[in-house]
Every structure is written in C-alpha cells, then in structure tokens.
Amino acid sequence: MSELKSGSNLEKVLKAGHFAFTGECGPPKGANVTHLKEKFQYLKGNVDAVNMTDNQTAVVRMSSLAGSVLMIEEGLEPNFQMVCRDRNRLAIMSDILGAYALGIRNMLCLSGDHQTFGNHPEAKNVHDIDSMQLIALVKKMRDEGKFMNDEDIDVPPKMFIGAACNPFADPYEYRVYRLANKITAGADFIQTQCIFNMEKFRDFMKKAVDMGLHEKCYILAGVTPMKNAGMANFMSRFVPGMDIPDSLIKRLKSVDKKDQAEEGIRFALEQVEEFKEMEGVAGVHMMAIEWEHRVPEIAERAKVLPRPVL
Amino acid sequence: MIVADRKSLEEILTMVKDNKKILIAGCKGCVTVCNVGGLKEVEILASSMKIARKKQGTHIDIDINVLERQCDNEYVAGVSDIIGNYDAVISLACGVGPQFLSEMYPDQTFYPGVNTTFFGGATQHGVWEERCAGCGTCAINNFGGLCPIARCAKSLMNGPCGGSSNGACEINKDTVCIWDVIVRKKMDAGKLEDLIGVRGIKNWRTARDGGPRRSIREELVQGNI
Q1: What are phi and psi of A114, to 5 degrees?
Q2: What total number of domains does chain A contain?
Q3: Distance of alpha carbon A202 from alpha carbon A208, whole angstroms
Q4: Boundaries of domain holding A112
Q5: Coil, strand, or helix at residue A189?
C-alpha cells in the first residue's frame, strides 16, 4: 500500500490488475443537489470512480469541485476534472489543495473546450498553463511537495493523475507522441476520447504498445453508448474531435427508431468486450451522457460487475 | 503591423451626434497599409458622414488631416494650431493614436473611429491575419517559426488539443490549427524530437499580464544615438 501514489480506489483497482470501469456525471446547471444525487445512485457500485466534468463544452454548471465533494458524501469516488480554460496557476493550485483537503484523490487534467462553444462565448479565457503543464504541476505538488514557484507545500496533495487522449484528432501520426508526452509529464492514467472508429483505435493502441506506453500508464478506453442515430449524426457534425464512422450511423439507422438505443448499447458492449482483450487497455471509461440511469444495465451486460472492493 | 477594422458609420455618427464641426484624423502608419485609416479612408468617411447628416437635416462641417504617425509626439504636435477649432476629433489611427492625441490635447475630445484588432499582416488582398500576441518573450524558433501563443485559440505550448481536425481549429473551420502546421513541419523536417518532452510553463510577466509595459533604450534616452 505504501507504493500507492494517492490511495484512491481507482488507483488500487488498476494497480491490482483489475479491468477498471469508470463513469461520468455532469453537474447540474444550477444548484440542484437532489437531481445530482439521483444520478449518483445509478453509478454507485457500478463503477470504480466517476468523472465530475468541469463546465464541459464551456457551458457553465455547478463547479466540478463542489460536485466531486457531493459525490464523496454519497459514497462514490470522484475523478475531479479540471480545465485550464477558466483558472490561472494560482486558482489551479488553490483548487487542487482544496480538492485534496476535501477528500478528492483523482484528477483529470484538461485544456478545456474553447469558450466559443459554450453559453458564454463572450468570456475571456485564461490558458495560463496548458494541460501538459497542468499534469506536470500536479505531479510536482504531489511528489516534490512544492508549488510551481518551488515553495514548500504544507501537506502536499496526493492525487492520482489522469489525462485525456484523443487518438482521432489530427495530426494522427503525432497523437501517440502527445500521449507519450503526457505520460512523461506525470499522467498515471489516461481516459481516451469516445471511441467509435475501432479500426483506427486498434492501430493507435498498437503504436502505443509498441512504444511501451501501456507499461508506464493505465489506458482506459472511452465508450459512449449512442442513444439514437440522431445523436451519432449530431456528434459527428458538431462535437470537435469526434470520429464516427458512417457504418455505425448506418447500423443505428438500420433498426426502428425505438430500437436504436438498444442498438447503441449493443455496439458499446461489443466495444467493451474487445477492449477487455485488447493489449494495453486497462479499463473502460463509460461516458453515458445524460444516460446515467442506463449505467447499471450497461455495467451488468458488460459483465464488469461486481466492482472490486479493495 | 497593427491591424484595425473601421467602426460602423452608425456608431461613429452616434459618437458625434451633438457636434457640428469635427476633424477626422488619419494616420500614414499601419492603418494606411491595412486600408482603414489612410487618406482614402478618411475622405470616404468624411463624405459618408456629410451625406448621412444632410439626410438627417443636421449639417456638419468636417475637415480632414492625415498625420505622418499618430503614435509619435513629434507629429501629434503638428496639429496644435488647428486642434482647438473643432467640437471633436475622430481618429482613424489604431488605439494608440487617439491616446497620444488625448494626452497632448487634454481639452479636446477624441473618438476612436476604428477597432484595433491585432498584430498581423495581409495573407491576400483584403485579408489580414493575426501573427503575434506581443507576449514580450518571443520563442517562435521553438515552434518552426510559428507562434502558438498568438495563433492557437488556447495558446497551447505542448501540441495540438483534441479538437484539431483536418488542419482546422475546433473553434472555426476557417481557422488554421497552427499546431497541425507546426507538427507537420517538424515531421517533414525529420525533427519530431523537438516536440518530444514537456515544454515548461510560460512567464507571463513580460506580457500584458505583468501590467502596462514600457520599453526603455538607455542609449537613446541619453542621446548617445
């Protein structure tokens, strides 16, 4: 146990060699704690940790820090997401200390969607540091016990450090090197962007394995079950960095509209089965977007239950 | 150069709606080059305003004057004899011009006739693009001679974000992902190793974040050169 970096449940699960299964939960557009807690109940016991998103798609919501703490109160483990868009280095370090003090042990370090996508496109963005530098900063705070300016931290925050990876963004040839850089910076685990193009992901993972990246870091494959063909079309057209093959859209369209959700889940389950066997993949990050109530069923059908208790 | 866009005629007319005699001051510097505040544009604005005010039935007298540079007190002083003759002055220089004028002539009212946008250049006739953010610590040599601070929407220093697609930035398909260009340039040159590792955190004190900036060249201040 002394070798654990943060002692989070997610870290323990991965370190013990279990196939990890993480979930995601967006905080409310308001202070509706009741609704948030309802969503938690669908995730509790079905995943190892839950990402609490940070003003995702640049739409203002309850803070991911507050959402993460509410999650802890309900007995779930949060993966506290932090974007560089909204905070300078002072706020970042301050929030990391606050998060740790309130019991948060996992962090996902992100640049953040540009504010022009969101509901306050007139906002000034920050980007004092980028996601790569954020990873290195969390590692420095944890391992050296120092702030960015090298001053000592009185009780350093011990975080299990996560980072994102989008194998489907361009330039593709560089993506595996960017992943390697994130690992060099200090990422302990990676959650990939939603995977739909399996052929491309297989190629990407082969490259990552050839470079030995899977031995330095836990790579969790991102899965989003499609609710219908319309969602697939929308994501393909409007969500940056998405690679949704026509074959998937055709597959969803090939069944009655009322059956498209089931078809979407089936595709996601097929993906999970393949990821279980894919070299270098240490788990799945299930992003059931505003579909938390389907997670218990998805987890059961994916045969990832019960989750290990360590 | 400094690039600017002219404000709309409506906005400018509103600024001087109560004035009967104004001066439109152009500048022969950057705004002439980017076709927004040189002699031609000053004349066009003056004509447009006269016509608009005539339609409104509120005649306006407009004189024009194009200064050599509005960012240089030597030339700003050149209008001292006439500046008091007007109810107000519209400057078509970048944001520097009307400030130099305001500082030298505190009793006069100066309105900005343009919106100053960025440091850049023309990529084709009629199209200007941003190239520099004036961060005070140029390091473009690390990025294939291209600036991710000015040209990446998130000023990323460690490679393209997950929104880069087919060479375009996630914010707009017409905006080049400069990191795509940087990466491809390095790959083509066989210098991918330049992009391996983590580039350290930037010191923003030399940028606007450190407060309004001043550049002092002692040899010039002392009159040695």
Answers
A1: -65, 145
A2: 1
A3: 10
A4: 9-301
A5: strand
Tell me how far apart the alpha carbons of residues B157 and A170 are, in angstroms, rounded to a whole number. Answer: 16
- In a domain, residue A1? The reply is no
- Whole-angstrom distance, CA of residue B110 vs CA of residue B91: 7
B interface with A, Cβ–Cβ < 8 A, is 153-167, 170-172, 177, 180, 183-184, 187, 192, 195-202, 204
Walk me through the domains of chain B, giving residue ranges and CATH numbers.
2-117 (3.40.50.2300), 133-210 (no CATH)
CA of B168: which chain A residue's CA is closest? A170
pLDDT at A3: 87
Contact B156 A181 (CB under 8 A): no
Write down the residue that tokens 């610590």 correspond to: B137
* Binned average pLDDT, 10 residues per bin, chain A of 310 residues: 87 98 97 97 98 96 98 98 98 98 98 95 97 98 98 98 97 97 98 98 98 98 97 89 93 96 98 98 96 96 97
- The distance from CA A82 to its chain's CA centroid, rounded to whole angstroms, is 11
Q: CATH number for the domain including A79?
A: 3.20.20.220
Can you give the pTM of this predicted structure?
0.96
Q: Which chain A residues have a beta carbon less than 8 Å from that of B158?
A: 130-133, 178, 181
Q: Which residues of A fall within a CB distance of 8 Å from B204?
A: 128
